[in-house]
Amino acid sequence: MTKGRAILLSVIGPATYILLRNLVSPSKPTEKSYIELVSALRNHYQPTISITVQRYKFHTRARKTNESVPDYVSKLKKLAEKCDFKDTLNDMLKDRLVAGINDEKIQKRLLIETDLTFEKAYNISVTEELANQDAHALQTPTGSGPVNKVGCSPKTAPNKASYTHSAHPMSSGAYKQGNKHCFRCGDKSHTAPKCRFINAKCHYCSKVGHIEKVCLSKQKIQQPKKERHEQTNAVEAELNLDEDNSDLFNIQSDSVTPPLHVDVIVDDVQMKFQLDTGAGVSLINQTDFVRHFGNTPLDPASVKLRSYTGNKLTVVGEKLVNVAVGDQSARLPLKVVEGNGPPLFGRDWLQEIRVPWKKIFNVDIVKQPPELDSLLAEYDELFNSELGCLKGVEAHIDIEEGATPQFCKARPLPFAMKKKVEDALQKLESQGVIEKVVHSDWATPVVPVVKAKGDAHLCGDYKVTVNKVAKQDKYPLPLVDEIFASLSHVQETALWSSCAVGLFQRTMENLLKGLPNVSVYIDDVLVTGRHDTEHLSNLRGVLTRLQENGLCLQMTKCQFMLPEVEYLGFKVTKDGINPTESKVRAIKEAPTPTNVNELRTFIGLVNYYARLLPNLAHRMAPLYKLLRNDEAWSWKSEQQSSFQKIKKMMSEDVMLAHYDPDAELVLSCDASSYGIGAVLQQPGPNGELKPVHFASRSLTSAEKNYAQIEREALGIIYGVQKFRQYLLGRTFTLETDHQPLVKLFVEHTAIPQLAAARIKRWALILSAYSYKIKHISSKENACADYLSRAPLQEPPDLSDLPEQEDVLLIDEELLSQLPLTAKTVASETQKDPCLAKVLQSTREGWPSKCDDDKLQPYFSRKTELTVEQGCVLWGSRVVIPSTLRPTLLLDLHSEHTGTVRMKGLARQYFWWPKMNDEIEQIAKNCASCQETASAPPSLPVAKWNWPSGPWKRLHIDYAGPYMGSMFLVVIDSYSKWLEVIPMKSTTTTATIQQLRKVFANLGLPEHIVSDNGPQFSSSEFKEFLMKNNIRHTLTPPGHTASNGMAERYVRYFKSQLKKMEKDEGTLQDKISRILLTYRCTPHPTTTESPAYLLMRRQLRTRFSSLRPSLDSQKDAETFEQNTSCLPKFAVGDKVYVLNLRAGPRWLPGIVIEVLQR
User: Which is an annotated GO molecular function term of this record (predicted)?
Assistant: First the structure.
């Protein structure tokens, strides 16, 4: 709980901390528990809600005009959340629904019910509402058009087949003559003097007294000038007819109504059928059937067909086919007949499949429904030419402290603009936007802009005055992805533009907060809906908010009930998102760039649509190459090909599906040697995955050196982080075509210990997400596998090179390379026949099987191998080429360390197959080690308790005389840290003097164990330990095993020193080498090195340089960046040199040599 409090206080920020301190005063936040602090903040930010007020709001909420029953019930449930009705919730909802339904018919119907529940009341209300809407739709008169009649006559057998056409019984002219209606709105329930639109303004002709729906001016323009022919069909089923044939089954008739068609998928073939409600069956002519389905065998038909006129049709056969229209599908019979008529969608199919009538009747000219006209007339005051004034909001411009006022003189105006500017100023003054002043410390020049109507729009050039010192309002604008993610299930949209900048985004978001399906981007407001009723309801909510807050709209800038709209540079439809035609044309017609600036402009335009374009990072790679600082401008065929491919991509029909928060999410990732990419997908209505978002980028120079498995993993991390807003907090499917990653990144599975560090780091990032990883083939991953997979050139065949023998003889050239470096290892790796193949496979990907025995040890570790600066690494250990292994073994055993210690030291730095066996062998073959081998161990004695930490208990003893000297040995029982000090004298004073030096470096211990030597049993030594509060234990005389740790390390030191007796160097040199190797080697008891246990860090050794270091590379890059702006000199350049001696400060000189740093 203390940890939680500390974390909370460290992340809440200074403002919240001050608030919290005031809330818990007079106590301090550090004196309160985590739960108390959270409770104080929650009580402050979430004050207690008044249940009485919330219940009042619930009981007074009635259904509004044009509000559907589901919407009304949804609002009631939202209000009931804070009313604490508990078990009586359904009864309260039922009572409020009956009382507030605001529909007399529905209310009477509900009151008739005896055992009325909320669920029953809701179902009755929705049913009654839909029935009223359907009844109203059936009463709407229809226009003139063809009628196709189908009948069944079991005995009549006409001789010829043809189609006939008959008109509707009521023509448009008859309707106009037989029905009186109001000429202001078209309604038949009242006359014109009683119409509520008597003062309404027509949106088409701008005249007062009628609405656009009945505008005569509009009807005259839309009246057709010429009739055209229409194809009309009629098919009739007959049971017993003669076998007469006919080639005709369509004729032409005069009509103004075009035939209706529906898109149908028949057995996975996209076709267009003519909709014919007069046809009893659905059919297709034999020619079209063979063209689409080949010579598919047909079943014999059990019925005969004739036209409405009685002519017989020859039925070739029938076939059961899979029919799909939109998200509906069924298996239905299709008749195949002779003739050349169009495919007909008959009543037999209509009984099984519901046709999208709204889409079929859709035409280019969008007609506004009468409900929209009524809605706009209701908010007629909102659409006026007056300037609106936002209520309750005051905008302030905050100036930085100490800012100096800027006064710019008025700029001279063209004579033709002077009158327009004066009129504009007078208009703004009359509207109260500006006012005249005699004196001002600030003045900004006017920039007039001529509008399309010819008048002037005034702007201020504030960048030279106020903008320099104004404090910026950093309110975040919504991202394009965030806006588009909220457009799922869009069917219709409404869009308008307003006049506002700066604080307008914050104000508009607060003003329209809580309204469904509304998006705001500065001065663009987008209102969407799944159908007319919902869309109009959402639009009413927006118009109400705007009117209540004093805003006005310009009708000329508003568009309503559109099936598609251009928004933020994209074309948004119900099916998805496309680039706008103007932007596509700008890219398609873009000239070839002639310099870097023009190229940047083109790339910036294309990158705006990166979310729509797969393969973009790879296609743009040749163009990105020219943007590098070290690359000279050279437009070659490679760049021209890339340029043309990108323009072609934009010419294709590019569309992204809308993000659906309720649908499954699939993230597919892939990588190549050039770049990485990801695609976010969701299943469509037919189950097929559709792209929601594309993302890709090129690899950096360092990332191109990654192993293939690391590049594939990097692609996954890039995709997850790119689409973090979509993926975090929900479960998704992660697809990859790299099989090893499935085992590494499978959820709730530990990462192998020897996996590369970056793989472990990426696995930790993925642990924050909930996903199911899945392996798919490259074919299935085609959407993400867009990067080129062209095979690289094979390296030279190294199989013919002679194999290296395992020897223990090292020539002088190899000895001169000690200590080895990463550069040497990388060079020898390229020459090693086996490691060269390992290097290539690690970079480009391993095969699925490996039959080479020499490669098998590496193949089994393929998921843990990486490449850094030309060196192969297994985890953090460098894989040593065969030519360097003998050298490294001798260097490893140069201090005659034992087998276990050599293995422990080697495992920290390097590896190769069967390395442990070779280490054991070199130790067995060492004559010095065998000659100085220890005797077998004695019987075990009682053990000391394990200390609680480092440098708690020390064991000390004297070693020698050996090689003419005595040595004071100090060993820490916890970390096994060893100190060996050569002593000229072994007196108590000399011993204390050396111990003081050791304690000065490492601190005072708590306990010292020693034998009964005179140095340790003297009163002077006891007094020294007592003053330093150190407990002293003397071992029993004659029982050296009681201080076995000190005795053991005395033997170890003497043994190591004896082995190095013939080596070069002074006694102190040999002691230092022994101590450094010992302190850096993992101890077999603790499995950690003494240095790490005592100081929590590893000491640097000769082997540390084997590991590739990125620090030097980063330092070089940083130095290059910091010095890139400095002048570069060449030999012979004349320069001035700073004189550090007496005389002139600068002396002329000539560059004679350029040195590289």
Answer: endonuclease activity
Give the model's pLDDT for residue 952.
92
In whole angstroms, what is the distance from residue 1088 CA to residue 1084 CA? 8
- Measure the CA–CA gap between 295 and 285, rounded to whole angstroms: 13
- Nearest residue to 230 via CA among 262, 260, 253: 253
CA-to-CA separations, 486 to 520, 560, 661, 954, 1124, in angstroms, rounded: 11, 19, 9, 69, 46
Strand partners, 540: none
pLDDT given for residue 951 in this prediction: 92
φ, ψ for residue 547, nearest 5 deg: -70, -40
Sort residue 917 into left (φ over 0), alpha (ψ -120 to 50) or beta.
alpha
Residue among 558, 511, 541 nearest 391 (CA) = 511
3-state SS assignment for residue 394: coil
**Global pTM exceeds 0.70:** no
Please name which of 258, 293, 253, 255 lies closest in space to residue 275, comparing C-alpha atoms: 258
Distance, in Å, from the CA atom of 122 to the CA atom of 73, rounded to the nearest integer, reads: 8
The full set of domains in the chain, from first to last, is 1-45 (no CATH), 51-134 (1.10.1200), 261-361 (2.40.70.10), 409-464 (no CATH), 659-789 (3.30.420.10), 820-894+908-918 (no CATH), 947-1105 (3.30.420.10)
Dihedral of CA atoms 762, 767, 770, 774 in degrees, nearest 10, equals 50
599 sits in the region (left: phi over 0; alpha: psi -120 to 50; else beta) called alpha
The first and second tokens of residue 682, run together, are: 């969701």
The C-alpha atoms of residue 895 and residue 898 are separated, in whole angstroms, by 9
Structure tokens at 185: 């709105």
- Tens digits of per-residue pLDDT, 793-845? 233 333 333 333 333 333 334 334 456 788 888 888 888 889 888 888 888 88
Under 8 Å between Cβ of 1046 and 969: yes
Q: Which of 220, 223, 213, 206 has the alpha carbon at shortest distance from 184?
A: 213
Peptide bond into 1127 cis (omega under 30): no
- H or E segment and range at residue 645: helix 637-651
Task: Read off the tokens for 1056.
Answer: 């190591």
Mean pLDDT, the chain, integer: 76
The span from the CA of 1013 to the CA of 1031, in Å, is 17
Instruction: Reduce the DSSP state of residue 404 to 3 states and report it.
Output: coil
Residue-wise pLDDT tens digits, 607-629: 766 666 676 777 778 888 888 77
Are 852 and 898 in contact, with CB atoms under 8 Å apart?
Answer: no
The helix-helix angle for 104-112 and 89-100 (nearest 10°) equals: 140
The single-letter DSSP state of residue 1116 is H
Asked if the model's pLDDT at residue 180 lies above 90, the reply is no
CA distances for 186 relative to 192, 199, 213, 370, 638, angstroms: 9, 15, 8, 10, 65
In this prediction, residue 785 has a pLDDT band, given cuts at 50, 70 and 90, of low
At residue 282 the predicted structure's pLDDT band, cuts being 50, 70 and 90, is very high
The secondary structure of 425-469, three-state, reads: HHHHHHCCCCCCCCCCCCECCEEEEECCCCCEEEEECHHHCHHHH
User: Where do we find the tokens 């005179």?
Assistant: 1014
Q: Is the bond preceding 819 in cis, omega lying within 30 degrees of 0? A: yes
Q: How far is CA 899 from CA 493, 995, 1079, in A?
A: 78, 32, 16
Cβ atoms < 10 Å from Cβ of 873: 23
Whether residue 940 is preceded by a cis peptide bond, meaning omega within 30 degrees of 0, is no
| Cα torsion angle, 942, 945, 951, 952, sign | negative
Rounded distance between C-alpha atoms, residue 853 and residue 847, angstroms: 14
